[in-house]
Amino acid sequence: MIDEWAPEPFFEQLANVLRSKINSGEWPPGHKLPSETTLQQTYGVARGTVRAALDVLREEGLVVTFVGRGTFVSPK
Amino acid sequence: MIDEWAPEPFFEQLANVLRSKINSGEWPPGHKLPSETTLQQTYGVARGTVRAALDVLREEGLVVTFVGRGTFVSPK
DNA sequence: GCGGATTTGTACGTATGTATG
DNA sequence: GCATACATACGTACAAATCCG
C-alpha cells in the first residue's frame, strides 16, 4: 500500500489510499475508520504519519474525528 | 510567554503570541520570522510544537513558508 | 561553482493527559 | 475501574531546498 520509493511522502500516500476507500464507497458515510493504532500497524508507519494523513482528510471535510470515539466518514 | 498551567495547549498559546506580533505590526508583511530552531529555544518548547503553532498561522493565511528559506509574514 | 551551514519537511519513537465506552 | 482512542508534547534522525562565504 505504501511505496517506500514513491516520490510522495508516506502521509500523502496513506491519505490517498484512505480517500479511495471513501470515494469508492467501501467506507460509506458514517463508517468508523480503523483506530490510529490499527492504521499504523496495517500500513507499517508511525502514528504521527497516520495523523498527518488523517489531517489531510479532515481538512478536505471527508472525515470527522471525536476524542475517545474515533474517526468517521463524514455524512453526505 | 508560554504558561505551563494555562488550559490552552502550548502550540495554541504560541500561535497567539506570534499572531500578536503580526497584528500589532511588530512583524510587518514580508518580515522573516525566527527559524523553528530559534523559536523552540526562545519559548522552550519542542520543534514539533513550534511547527504546530506555525500550522495554525499558515491556515489562517497570516504566514507563508518556503523550504530552506524560512517563514514570512504574508504580504498585505 | 563548491561546500558547509541553515532551514524546513518528513518520519520515527515515547510519554502523558483527556474523553469515551 | 479498566480498556480504548484521540490530543498534546517531548526528543531524535535524516532528507531536501536554500543561503552564503
Say which CATH homologous superfamily of chain A is assigned.
Winged helix-like DNA-binding domain superfamily/Winged helix DNA-binding domain
The level of helicity of chain A is 40-55%
One letter per element, helices H and strands E, the order of chain A comes to: HHHEE
Overall morphology of chain A = globular
**Average predicted confidence as pLDDT of chain A:** 88
Largest sheet entry of chain A? 2 strands, antiparallel
Task: List low-confidence stretches of chain A.
Answer: none
Structural class category of chain A = mainly alpha
Tag the structure with descriptive keywords.
homodimer, 76 residues, mainly alpha, Arc Repressor Mutant, subunit A, two-stranded antiparallel sheet, 11% strand, globular, DNA-binding
Short précis:
By secondary structure, the first copy, chain A, is mainly alpha-helical.
What does this structure look like?
2 copies of one chain form a homodimer. Chain A has 76 residues and is mainly alpha-helical. Chain A has one domain (10-73): Winged helix-like DNA-binding domain superfamily/Winged helix DNA-binding domain (Arc Repressor Mutant, subunit A). Chain A has 3 helices and 2 strands. A two-stranded antiparallel sheet of chain A has the order 1-2. The termini of chain A are far apart. The chains hardly touch. Chain A binds a DNA duplex (21 and 21 nucleotides) through α3.
